[in-house]
From TrEMBL:
Coiled coil: none annotated. Residues 1-27 form the signal peptide. It comes from the Bacteria. It comes from Noviherbaspirillum album. This is Tripartite tricarboxylate transporter substrate binding protein.
Amino acid sequence: MQFKKPMQMLVGALSLSILAGAGNAAAADYPGKPVRLLVGYSAGGATDVIARLVAQKLSTQMGQQFIVENKPGANGNIAAELVARAVPDGLTLYVAAINNTINASLYNNLSFNFERDFAPVSLIATVPNILVVHPSVPAKNVKEFIEFAKKKPGEINFASSGSGSSIHMSGELFKMMTGVDMLHVPYKGSAPAVTDLLGGRVQAMFDNAPSALPNVQNGRLRALAITSAKRSEALPDLPTMIEAGLPGYEVNSWFALVAPANTPREIVARLNEEVNKALRNPDVRASLAKLGADPSGTTPEQLRTFISSETARWAKVVKTSGAKVD
């Protein structure tokens, strides 16, 4: 009987050692199979473009395919729910974005909790939004756009990639701060929204920089201001919203990689290491810079803290603006 406790301790220690060894082995062998990266928006938008850039680099680094799958709908909630319910083996991942922290307060009946049901891996990049208008809109700057919109209350339509997206909330914040009355028109991603903007079916959009830049640079859309606190190197002559006369206006979209909750810590750590390695690659950084995106790279713990703060921040904006799901 006197050896019972020491034996229990020994068995416990051996069990922990075996589990640790199994976890390390799983991480060493990971991924072993193709990995699915689910994106909550249609192909061609900023989330999709950045996801494919990272997926390509991870495929090269890890010797296994990382395949982007677009599951648009409900402002990313459809894709997020699929990943939240997936087997936590690191083979099904989600490219999260700012919309997920906005959705937490915008939607009343979500079947998952973004903070609880996902394991943060790493922040990938941040990007500003750009207020762009169709060339038929006579305004050449933000002041003129506000004057134009106030003369046509309820007649100006602004598109977004979905209710609760940073594109949508950028517009709601603009409405709050300027008093203009514009109609929000949500789409299932930036690409179809931009298509209608180019066709003149809607007049304005606070599009993500990666999606907006090509159409601004080729003259198909007119950029009025950028939503970041500082100007973009990609469009150095474009003023910020603050410079355009809206002090305190700042919105930055962001993109991150997350896994289902309960994914083994060793796999999360391996993914974090590989994502951060990809983000240090000069070619990847140059590609992101061309998109107007700023590469990030964080620890899982830093991303968890960031997600929590963003969720709290947008809950206040949603409440104050009175924004509702369309």
